[in-house]
């Protein structure tokens, strides 16, 4: 019975590695592009449909809600990693980072 256990791949570890590989900030950072200001069009697909990503806990008022509903603003969550994209293309999901 022990033999079966030892031959079984460690799925949890595997899943965790995949998750980290997919979502690690460095990975996200390397997949995006940098811009000094919000680009008019997506450098990847040319779409002008670019959303602002808002971090932290914004005051969720009516106007913000409308913007989020329309997809003009995306909520990036509360955790600031230092690698957070400022904008994101709504068509191809390309992340755009502020050039520092
Ligand atoms: Zn795009």
Q: What order do the helices and strands come in, and which of them pair?
A:
Layout: H1 2-7, H2 11-23, H3 25-31, E1 33-35, E2 50-55, H4 62-70, E3 73-77, E4 87-89, E5 95-98
Parallel strand pairs: 1-5, 2-3
Antiparallel strand pairs: 2-4, 4-5
Bound molecules: zinc ion (ZN).
Zinc ion binds near residues 47, 89 and 91.
How would you describe this protein?
The chain has 100 residues and is an alpha/beta fold. It has one domain. 35% of the residues lie in helices and 21% in strands. The protein has four helices and five strands. A five-stranded mixed β-sheet has the order 1-5-4-2-3. A hairpin with a 5-residue loop joins strand 4 (87-89) and strand 5 (95-98). The protein is globular and about 45 Å long. The termini are far apart. The relative contact order is 0.22. The mean pLDDT is 78.
In a few lines, what is going on in this structure?
With 100 residues, this protein is of the alpha/beta class.
Question: Main traits of this protein?
Answer:
single chain; 100 residues; alpha/beta; five-stranded mixed sheet; 4 helices; 35% helix; binds zinc ion
Low-confidence stretches: none
Helix content: 25-40%
Mean pLDDT: 78
Task: Write down how many β-strands occur, each being a DSSP E stretch of 2 or more residues.
Answer: 5
Query: What is the string of SSEs from the N terminus onward?
Result: HHHEEHEEE
Largest sheet: 5 strands, mixed
- Distinct helical segment count: 4
